[in-house]
Specification:
This protein has 130 residues and is α/β, with parallel strands linked by helices. It has one domain: Nucleotidyltransferase, domain 5, CATH 3.30.420.40. Helices cover 33% and strands 25% of the residues. It contains 3 helices and 5 strands; from the N terminus they run βββαβαβα. Strand 1 (2-7) and strand 2 form a beta hairpin. Helix 1 (35-49) crosses helix 2. The longest helix is centred in the middle third of the chain and has 18 residues, at 69-86. The chain is globular, with a radius of gyration of 15 Å. It starts with a strand and ends in a 23-residue tail after the last helix.
Amino acid sequence: MILLTIRSDNPTAEIGLFDGSNKLAYKAWEGHRQLAETIHHKIEAMLKSQHKQWHDIEGIVCFQGPGSFTGLRIGLTVANALTYSLTIPIVACKSNDWIAHGIKRLLAGESDQIALPEYGAPVHTTTQRK
């Protein structure tokens, strides 16, 4: 089972490609403000390096948080969009061993249907000025 992992809760974004619990490839990069522009290219490059295509992905494990509002929003949106378009399962985990835990859940046939972020604190919004 080919699995994609995504972590985007801090400036250093991480993606991984696994065959079951065997790591095929892993990439970390400074995503910062370019995360939305770079994450798809990084995933595609990783897939190509392993002679895989988008449709070869059979499940996604993503880091749920806590972490950066924007980073989590981008990473989880990409993960949810891929699971929807590829019709594959997704699990979101927040533990230190999130990859191992998530892979175990996917291999057991679990799916969260949609990955929701956990920011670690209530979202602070400002009132509209006009």
